[in-house]
Design a protein that fits this description.
Elements lengths: L6 H12 L27 E13 L2 E3 L2 E3 L5 E4 L2 E4 L9 E9 L6 E7 L3 E9 L4 E4 L2 E4 L5 E3 L11 E8 L5 E8 L6 E6 L1 E4 L4 E4 L2 E4 L4 E3 L11 E6 L1 E3 L4 E3 L2 E4 L11 E12 L4 E4 L2 E4 L5 E3 L11 E9 L2 E9 L6 E11 L4 E4 L2 E4 L5 E4 L18 E8 L5 E9 L7 E10 L2 E4 L2 E4 L5 E3 L4 E2 L1 H10 L4 E9 L2 E9 L20 E12 L2 E4 L2 E4 L5 E4 L2 E3 L1 H6 L6 E9 L3 E9 L6
Parallel strand pairs: 1-23, 4-7, 10-13, 11-13, 17-21, 18-22, 25-28, 26-28, 31-34, 32-34, 37-41, 38-41, 44-48, 45-48
Antiparallel strand pairs: 1-2, 1-6, 2-3, 4-5, 6-7, 8-9, 8-12, 8-14, 8-42, 9-10, 12-13, 14-19, 15-16, 16-17, 19-22, 20-21, 23-24, 23-27, 24-25, 27-28, 29-30, 29-33, 30-31, 33-34, 35-36, 35-40, 36-37, 38-39, 40-41, 42-43, 42-47, 43-44, 45-46, 47-48
C-alpha cells in the first residue's frame, strides 16, 4: 500500500498530540493549531508547516536551511511507505510536514517523503556542457550536484541512475542528486501527458512514448488520461531504439500535498510561468502570487525570472498561495578548493583554508567522506586540521560563502581547484590562495582551442574576473597543474555566461553511442565527429592508429571523445577512446 495520507493531516495531528490536544475549547485560548502552557504559565503557539527542498545534512534532517527533528517522523522513500532515516541522502528533494512551536525548539517532523523524479539508463554524457541524458530527458548538473556511488568522471553510458532535483523552465531537469543504481532496474519518470492516442493506447512523456495498454492505475483510471495531466509512470519493458516504455503502472500526481489549511509553506525550486503583470509564478508545480508586502532576500523583484532558483515562504489567503518572502539561491559557484582547516570561529561560523575565510549559512550542504564517516556531520563537527573540499562563491564585497562542504582524508584530495587567478607567471599562479605550479607537461585550454602559457597569462592579466579550473597532483603544498582550463567571462575567455546558450563552441568532451557512420564522419547524439592523423586513439586501453580505430567503429558502440568545435558545425576530435567486446 502506498503512503498516501495527507501531509497536512499528519502535521496537524502531530501538533495536537505534542500539545496534549487542541485548546480551542478554552475561552482564553490564543493559539494557532493548538498549544499548552510552559513552566512560567505562558502559552505556546503551534503552527503546521510544510516544506519542500533539498536535504543538506543530518542530525536530524536539514531542509531549506531548517533543522527538523525526525525521531518521530513517518518516512517514505520511493514506493516504500515504511522507510527509515538512514535511507535519506544529502541532495534528495523531500517534502516535510511538521509542527512548529514558538518555544525556540526545532520543528517536529511528522512526515518526510522522498520520491525520485526519474530513474533509468544513461544514454549520453556531455561533461563539458554538464549534461546527462536519461530516457530522452536532459539532466543538468554542476559543482553543487551530489553524486552517490559514482561521479561524473566514472559515470558511463548504460549505467542505471536515480535522479532527484528540479524541473526548469525549459522542460529540462537540474539534478541535486545523481545516484548509481546497481540492483533496481525499473524505469520511473514523472511528467505531463502529451499526444494521447486512445486507439493506439499511447501517449508522450517528455521524449518517451508510453504504451499504457497493460498498465495498472493509482488514484485514477484509464478514462482520466488526458493531455496535460501530470503523472508518474513505471515499467520494466523499455525499447531504447524507439524510446518506448511499456507502462506497468500510472499514478496521478496532479494534486499536490498542500491544502489551504497549511499555516506556513516553504518551497524551493526553479521559477516557471512567471507573469510579471499578474505577479503569478510557479515553483515545483505550486502557484504563488506576489503582493505589495512580498519581501526579497539576496535579490529584488527585478531578479525574479523564469529559470531562477528560489526559496519561497508563503501562506494561504482565499485559497491562493501568497509569497511572503522570496530568497534567491546562490548556485553560481565560482570557486572549488580543498585544504586543511587552520582556524575556526564557532561564534561567527567561519573556517579558514589556505588563508581564505569561509562563512557558512543555514543552507550550506555538508557531507563526511573521510574515514570518520559521520552521518550527522555539520559545521559544529569541523575541527582545526580537518581536510575539507569546499564549493563556494564570493560576493561583491569579497566575502566567501561555502555552499558545499565535504570532509575528506588528505590522501583523497582530487587535485582540483577553481577560481580567480592572482600572481600569474610562466612558473605558476595562485587560485583561491592555492599555489599552482606549471611544468613542461602542463596543458592550457582557452575558450576555443589549446593555448600557450604566454597566451594564458595575457588572458588572465587582461581580465581579472576570469575563472580558471586546474587539475593536477600535489607536490607538498603546491598543486602541479596537468591541465589548466579558462572559462568564459562576459563574452571573453573566462566566463561561462553565453547569451545565445549555444553549446556548439569551444571544447567538447562527451560519451555516447555511435548513431551512424557516414564516410569519414561519425555521428553521436546528433554531433558530427571528424578524426585526423593527429587524433590520439585508444582501443581497449591500448593506443592504436587511425585505420585500426576506424575499423573497430560500429553503430551502437559507445565512444568517448575530447575535441574542439569547428565553425559550430562539427567536432575536430583530439582524443578518442573505444571499448569493444572483441578479444584480442
Amino acid at each position: 500500500m502506498r503512503f498516501k495520507q495527507s501531509l497536512l493531516v499528519l502535521a496537524i495531528s502531530g501538533a495536537l498530540t505534542a500539545c496534549g490536544g487542541s485548546s480551542s475549547d478554552s475561552p482564553n485560548d490564543n493559539t494557532s493549531g493548538g498549544g499548552n502552557n510552559t513552566d512560567d504559565g505562558t502559552a505556546t503557539t503551534t503552527t503546521t508547516v510544510v516544506s519542500e527542498g533539498v536535504i543538506t545534512g543530518f542530525g536530524s534532517v536539514y531542509v531549506n536551511g531548517q533543522r527538523y527533528r525526525s525521531e518521530n517522523a513517518e518516512i517514505a522513500v520511493g514506493n516504500s511507505p515504511a522507510a527509515d532515516e538512514a535511507q535519506l541522502k544529502v541532495g534528495m528533494v523531500v517534502t516535510v510536514a511538521a509542527s512548529a512551536s514558538d518555544d525556540g525548539e526545532d520543528p517536529d517532523a511528522q512526515q518526510i517523503r522522498y520520491e525520485e523524479h526519474l530513474q533509468g539508463p544513461v544514454s549520453f554524457i556531455d561533461r563539458e556542457a554538464e549534461q546527462i541524458e536519461v530516457l530522452g530527458q536532459t539532466i543538468l548538473f554542476d559543482d553543487l550536484t551530489e553524486f552517490d556511488e559514482t561521479d561524473i568522471e566514472t559515470l558511463s553510458v548504460g549505467d542505471f541512475i536515480e535522479v532527484s532535483g528540479y524541473i526548469n523552465d525549459e522542460g529540462n531537469f537540474y539534478a541535486t542528486l545523481v545516484e548509481l543504481e546497481t540492483e533496481e532496474t525499473e524505469i520511473k519518470l514523472k511528467g505531463e501527458i502529451a499526444n494521447l492516442d486512445t486507439d493506439a493506447q499511447t501517449f508522450s512523456l517528455a521524449e518517451l512514448t508510453i504504451d499504457y495498454s497493460a498498465a495498472e492505475y493509482e488514484d485514477m483510471t484509464a478514462d482520466d488520461l488526458a493531455d496535460g495531466l501530470f503523472v508518474k509512470v513505471e515499467g520494466d519493458d523499455f525499447d531504447g531504439d524507439t524510446l518506448t516504455l511499456t507502462a506497468s503502472s500510472i499514478e496521478n500526481k496532479e494534486e499536490n500535498d498542500i491544502d489551504n489549511d497549511a499555516e506556513e509553506v516553504t518551497i524551493a525550486g526553479i521559477v516557471k510561468d512567471y507573469d510579471s503583470e499578474s505577479g503569478v509564478f510557479s515553483v515545483n508545480r505550486y502557484e504563488f502570487t506576489l503582493n505589495d508586502d512580498t519581501e526579497f532576500d539576496d535579490g529584488s523583484l527585478d531578479t525574479l525570472a523564469n529559470g531562477v532558483i528560489v526559496k519561497v515562504e508563503g501562506r494561504f489567503e482565499s485559497e491562493q498561495l501568497i509569497a511572503e518572502e522570496i530568497e534567491f539561491k546562490a548556485t553560481d559557484a565560482r570557486s572549488k578548493t580543498e585544504g586543511q582547516v587552520t582556524d575556526l570561529n564557532a561564534d561567527n561560523e567561519t573556517f579558514v583554508i589556505d588563508n581564505t575565510t569561509f562563512s557558512v549559512t543555514p543552507e550550506t550542504q555538508y557531507e563526511d567522506e573521510s574515514d570518520l564517516d559521520e552521518r550527522s556531520f555539520t559545521f559544529d563537527d569541523i575541527a582545526v586540521n580537518d581536510w575539507l573540499k569546499v564549493i563556494s562563491r564570493q560576493d561583491d564585497q569579497g566575502n566567501t560563502t561555502a555552499l558545499k562542504v565535504k570532509r575528506i582524508d588528505q590522501e583523497d584530495r582530487e587535485g582540483e581547484v577553481k577560481g580567480r587567478v592572482s600572481d600569474v607567471s610562466a612558473e605558476g599562479m595562485t587560485i583561491a590562495n592555492v599555489a599552482v605550479g606549471f611544468n613542461e607537461n602542463t596543458e592550457f585550454e582557452g575558450e576555443d582551442d589549446s593555448i600557450s602559457v604566454e597566451r594564458f597569462i595575457e588572458l588572465v592579466q587582461s581580465n581579472p574576473a576570469v575563472i580558471v579550473e586546474v587539475e593536477g597532483e600535489y607536490d607538498g603544498d603546491t598543486l602541479i597543474a596537468a591541465e589548466v582550463e579558462v572559462e568564459t567571462v562576459g563574452g571573453q575567455d573566462g566566463d561561462d555566461d553565453d547569451d545565445d546558450n549555444d553549446d556548439s563552441t569551444g571544447k567538447a568532451e562527451f560519451e555516447g553511442e555511435i548513431e551512424s557512420i557516414e564516410g569519414d564522419s561519425v555521428f553521436v547524439n546528433g554531433n558530427e565527429l571528424r578524426f585526423s592523423q593527429d587524433t590520439k586513439f585508444e582501443l581497449n586501453d591500448e593506443e592504436v592508429d587511425l585505420q585500426t580505430f576506424y575499423g573497430a567503429l560500429e553503430v551502437g558502440v559507445v565512444i568517448e571523445i575530447e575535441g574542439l568545435w569547428v565553425d559550430q558545425s562539427y567536432i575536430k576530435v583530439t582524443e578518442a577512446e573505444l571499448e569493444t567486446n572483441d578479444e584480442e
